[in-house]
């Protein structure tokens, strides 16, 4: 009988992944970190027994949190990633050769070190890219203190429990808005609305108070079980109104090969089903 990892995220619903081989299981300063091998998903990273990313399906999540805001912006030079310790978000952001600089603020140096060793396919060399500055700090503290401005801010956080909780507060979102350029865009990991509706509602209430153009878009990621995942979107610029043919031409110019993102999917991702629409203020 093989072992299974049963996720502990939701009170009355859980997914389980077969553990073919446990490759790493240890406590960092902030959280318990495991990596194991699974037949379908390849290497799986969990923090406190919650799936963070897998070798098999991470492309959907990372592509949708990077190419959507960067291509919608159209002239981004500076990007900030909050969280993102596994390096997958940095990998996908840095595929845009037009970017000058990427700052990544991760609270847990253990996740970075460990991912470099056990999940090198996720970062795919991103940590060695001279355009990347890695800061080990609490993302909320960084956001409160920074005087820099960014064209795109991506919040690649854990769920709002433990160290990730501060990244879902009105205060944090307010500081994020201050750190954006005039037409800058904030995108956030906002959970699976079917199971985490209150989380999305709370974030959207804050976004509505802060941004002229606010809302969310979605993608379905197999290991973030329970239906589509929501990504928060907030900007005072025109990025939400860019037509399909312009997105297509920016995508062609960027020459990025994707597994999930297409300009059509980009546009369609903002069409929300009724039960998600009703969670928005
Ligand atoms: N995609 C995953 C999900 O939705 O479950 C999350 C990705 S994982 C890379 C999230 C990262 O956020 C972890 O490396 C964690 O250490 C980091 N993190 C959590 N709280 C943080 C904080 N307050 N500041 C910066 N990074 C934080």
Structure, explained:
The protein has 281 residues and is an alpha/beta fold. It folds into two domains: 3-54, Spermidine synthase, tetramerisation domain (Spermidine Synthase, Chain: A, domain 2); 58-277, Vaccinia Virus protein VP39 (Rossmann fold). Helix content is 31%, strand content 29%. The chain is built from ten helices and 13 strands. The protein has helices spanning 58-73, 88-93, 109-118, 120-123, 139-145, 170-178, 197-210, 244-254, 263-268, 274-277; strands at residues 3-6, 16-19, 21-27, 32-38, 42-47, 50-54, 78-83, 101-106, 132-136, 150-156, 180-189, 213-219, 229-235. It has a seven-stranded mixed beta sheet with strand order 9-8-7-10-11-13-12, sandwiched between helices. Strands 3-4-5-6 form a four-stranded antiparallel beta sheet, with no helix packed on it. It has a two-stranded antiparallel ribbon with strand order 1-2. A hairpin with a 2-residue loop joins β5 (42-47) and β6 (50-54). α6 packs across α7. The radius of gyration is 18 Å and the shape is globular. The mean pLDDT is 96. The structure holds S-adenosylmethionine. S-adenosylmethionine binds next to β6, β7, β8 and α5. Residues 2-236 form the PABS domain. Belongs to the spermidine/spermine synthase family. Keywords: Polyamine biosynthesis, Spermidine biosynthesis, Transferase. Homodimer or homotetramer. It catalyses: S-adenosyl 3-(methylsulfanyl)propylamine + putrescine = S-methyl-5'-thioadenosine + spermidine + H(+).
């Amino acid at each position: 009988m093989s072992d299974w990892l049963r996720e502990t995220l939701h009170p009355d619903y859980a997914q389980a992944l077969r553990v073919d081989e446990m490759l790493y299981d240890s406590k960092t300063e902030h959280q318990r970190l495991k990596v194991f091998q699974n037949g379908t998903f390849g290497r799986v990273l969990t923090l406190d027994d919650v799936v963070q990313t897998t070798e098999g399906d991470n492309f959907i999540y990372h592509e949708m949190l990077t190419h959507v805001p960067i291509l919608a912006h159209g002239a981004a030079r500076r990007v900030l990633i909050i969280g993102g310790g596994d390096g997958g978000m940095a990998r996908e952001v840095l595929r845009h050769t037009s970017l000058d600089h990427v700052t990544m603020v991760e609270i847990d140096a253990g996740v970075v070190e460990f991912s470099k060793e056990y999940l090198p396919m996720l970062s795919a060399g991103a940590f060695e890219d001279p355009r990347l500055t890695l800061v080990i700090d609490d993302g909320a503290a960084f956001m409160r203190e920074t005087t820099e401005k960014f064209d795109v801010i991506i919040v690649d956080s854990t769920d709002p429990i433990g160290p990730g909780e501060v990244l879902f507060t009105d205060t944090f979102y307010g500081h994020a808005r201050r750190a954006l350029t005039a037409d800058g865009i904030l995108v956030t990991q906002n959970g699976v609305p079917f199971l985490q509706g209150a989380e999305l509602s709370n974030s959207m209430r804050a976004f509505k108070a802060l941004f002229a153009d606010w809302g969310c878009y979605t993608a379905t990621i197999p290991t973030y079980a329970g239906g589509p995942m929501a990504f928060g979107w907030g900007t005072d610029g025109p990025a939400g109104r860019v037509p399909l043919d312009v997105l297509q031409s920016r995508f062609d110019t960027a020459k990025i090969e994707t597994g999930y993102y297409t300009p059509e999917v980009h546009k369609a991702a903002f069409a929300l089903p009724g039960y998600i629409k009703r969670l928005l203020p």
